[in-house]
Write a structure and sequence with these properties.
The complex is a heterodimer. Chain A is an alpha/beta fold. In chain A, 37% of the residues lie in helices and 23% in strands. Chain A has helices spanning 42-50, 79-82, 88-93, 107-119, 135-149, 165-180, 193-199, 215-228, and strands at residues 4-13, 16-26, 31-35, 57-62, 72-74, 153-157, 185-189, 202-205, 211-214. In chain A, the strands form two sheets. In chain A, strands 5-6-7-3-8-9 form a six-stranded mixed sheet, with helices on both faces. In chain A, helix 4 (107-119) crosses helix 5 (135-149). Chain B is built from 13 helices and no strands. Classes of the chains: A alpha/beta, B mainly alpha.
Chain lengths: 229, 281
């Protein structure tokens, strides 16, 4: 069974439709890139998947043991975060906020956070202040936080925005490893079509003509487009 | 020096002074803890706006000759806080403009009312004492002290119990919401608690100086500490130290309480800036 199934989704806000009749599904282990122009509804789609927004019609179903608030979410950075006085350890641990009902984090949560810190090579940075890190290190910390919230499904919103080419490569390599080696399903919103062609197993293109298919189909479609031009 | 200490001992024997110190400590602690969240969420100005609103409400209470002003001031300020923080979330542009409008509007109407329907012969004195606090902290009744302590304890308990959710909401509301935290509820809670603390703190420093109590300890702590816990704890301690120092100094040197407390906070800020620089180099 698919981890996420979207059926005939129509999305919008304040009565305005931004995206209609969207049907796609995400299987375990997929690396799905969501591409499309600004304003095509990528962010709205993401918010709908996270349950922050209700679809105008249609349904989002979770399956295969994935629950709605168990998606590891890597949002775009906000201005508030850039100079936030918090250590990397505190931020990663805050990824457990949804899974813990007691007032304080317990041993289990701390161990989980520690595991993610180690996995992303953040051990030497654990007590460093978030605002003193480079852009790439900050993204790694946020990715570790997202991994605390999930074991199976990551949703990344333009994870390389504002990173320099070297950090971008590094970030893509980390995500690829999480996907290939650890079997974590990845949904990535991106403007970087080259990355979509290189890493995705499936591509969802929204805005104008909706396309959903495997990477090969997307590449073939791209070639067709080029020939037509 | 010994003379000062003897005088201090004499003052501490007075119940009124002891009460002022207890209330001052509680208010200082609460306002500093809340201030960390407010400063980080870019709501530094909210304290100013709400305290000016509270001044307006206080004027209305005085004109109506209410025996317990809190009964009117507290609900009005809470309502404004909910409106301001709630509106700031949905419509980004109107946030600071509505704070500015509300605060000057309330000030103007408050002063106008006090002059049109003077509650006592000394309007200027009344206004000055609600703006700058004067000695109201030293003249608190037992009930007021009890109310202050109860509300402060509630705020502290809420802060400790909800600490990790507050951190998540402050750092990244979107992520927190996606993890199933009810961000709207916490925003509302922060709004209500801000209003309560501001109304309490007006007794200490008056409505013009309240926001100093909220923001200075947090800003000072951020200069030196690099973790959220460190900043929070340091802001709390620093605020209490400055407030106690300010109250005692004002008694010893016969200066206005509110201004002395805030001056201590400002001096501490520059001290922390210096320490922060030294630590870096």
């Amino acid at each position: 069974m698919a981890q996420i199934e979207c059926e005939d989704l129509t999305l919008g806000y304040e009565g305005k439709t931004v995206l209609s009749h969207l049907t796609f599904s995400v299987e375990a282990g997929d690396y799905l890139c969501i591409v499309g122009e600004n304003g095509s509804g990528k962010t709205t789609l993401m918010k709908t998947l996270l349950g922050l927004c209700r679809p105008l019609s249609g349904a989002v179903r979770f399956g295969d043991g994935v629950k709605k608030n168990e998606i590891g979410y890597l949002p775009q950075q906000t201005a508030v975060q850039r100079d936030f006085p918090a250590s990397v350890g505190e931020i990663v641990l805050s990824g457990c906020v949804g899974r813990c009902r007691t007032p304080f984090y317990g041993k289990k949560e701390r161990a989980l956070a520690e595991e993610q810190i180690e996995r992303l090579g953040l051990l030497p940075l654990r007590d460093r202040c978030y605002r003193e890190l480079s852009g790439g290190q900050q993204q790694r910390a946020l990715l570790a936080r997202a991994l605390c919230a999930t074991r199976r499904l990551l949703l990344l919103d333009e994870p390389v925005a504002g990173l320099d080419p070297q950090m971008t490569e590094e970030m893509y390599a980390i995500v690829e490893e999480l996907n290939r080696r650890h079997g974590i399903t990845v949904l990535m919103i991106t403007h970087d079509l080259a990355a979509a062609r290189r890493y995705a197993t499936r591509v969802l293109h929204i805005g104008g003509e909706i396309f959903f298919g495997t990477r090969e189909e997307y590449l073939a479609r791209g070639k067709e487009g080029e020939n037509r031009d | 020096m010994t003379e000062w200490l003897t005088r201090l001992g004499e003052y501490l024997a007075i119940p009124m002074v002891r009460r002022a110190l207890i209330v001052g400590t509680m208010i200082a602690l609460c306002s500093a803890l809340l201030g960390v969240t407010l400063v980080l969420r870019r709501f530094s100005f909210i304290g100013d706006g709400l305290s000016h609103t509270a001044f307006g409400a206080l004027a209305v209470a005085a004109v109506l000759h209410l025996s317990n002003e809190m009964l009117l001031v507290l609900p009005v300020t809470v309502l404004c806080a909910v409106l301001l923080l709630g509106a700031g979330k949905n419509k980004k542009t109107s946030g600071d403009a509505s704070v500015a409008m509300l605060s000057v509007g309330a000030m103007a109407f408050g002063y106008l009312l006090l002059n049109l329907f003077p509650a006592s012969g000394n309007v200027a004195g009344d206004v000055c004492s609600s703006l700058f606090g004067s000695t109201s902290i030293l003249t608190l009744s037992r009930t007021e002290v009890a109310l202050c302590v109860v509300l402060s304890v509630l705020v502290l308990a809420a802060f400790v119990l909800l600490y990790r959710r507050l951190f998540a909401v402050t750092f990244d509301a979107g992520f927190a919401e996606a993890s199933g935290v009810h961000v709207g509820f916490y925003n509302l809670l922060i709004a209500v608690v801000s209003a309560v603390i501001i109304v309490l703190a007006m007794n200490l420093v008056g409505s013009l100086l309240v926001s100093a109590l909220l923001i200075f300890p947090a800003l000072s702590a951020m200069r030196v500490y690099r973790s959220f816990l460190g900043v929070t704890v340091c802001a709390g301690i620093l605020s209490v130290v400055c407030t106690l120092f300010g109250i005692l100094a004002s008694i010893l040197f016969n200066t206005p309480v509110g201004a002395t407390v805030v001056a201590a906070d400002v001096l501490a800020y520059f001290l922390f800036v210096l320490i922060g620089r030294l630590k870096k180099s």
